[in-house]
Amino acid sequence: MISLIFQISIMSKLSYPHFLPKHFFVLIFAFLLITSSCRIQLIADYDANISEQIERTAMKVERFYLTMLETTTVENNGRAYDHFTEGYIDIEVELISLLNRNQVRPLNENSVRICEITLELWQKYKLEHKEDNSISDGVIGLNRLTFSDLFFAMQVAERAKELID
After folding, report:
1. Model confidence over 24-81: pLDDT tens digits?
2. Which pTM does this prediction carry?
3. Can you state the angle between helices 137-164 and 48-71, rounded to 10 degrees?
4. How many domains, the chain?
5. Structural domain for 20, as ranges
6. Is 21 inside any structural domain?
7. Are residues 93 and 112 in the same domain?
8. Is residue 96 part of a domain?
9. Are residues 96 and 156 in the same domain?
């Protein structure tokens, strides 16, 4: 019984006219206005030039492997490393450029890591081709799939920045 009386007494003291200050809603509105104009950014800004370079490099890699697959065969040294050295170099230069452009952007660790992985795999696959002096249709297919996935991840990471901006 005493508990019930105490609860009723407390509730009446906390009722709207007595509990809330007159300017409560003004303070809430001011707080919301101030905090809505603040922005915490945890990732880099979108860069259309980098997005275009990703697309251009992805197309070069795809063309490189498709050309190798469609115009040459393993027989008669058709896929000897020497026939593709220039293509490997051109694409590696593009990948290094892409990595460098991403490294200078603040708050861009994820994109940098994707570029590092892509460059490391490119160099690894190039070295394997050089050591074997040949590359099979199956390996070409796997390499295409690997790089397609990596460039897709790069594009998704860059597009997410565009959506956040």
Report:
1. 666 676 676 666 666 666 678 889 999 999 999 999 999 999 999 999 998 889 999 9
2. 0.74
3. 170
4. 2
5. 2-37
6. yes
7. yes
8. yes
9. yes
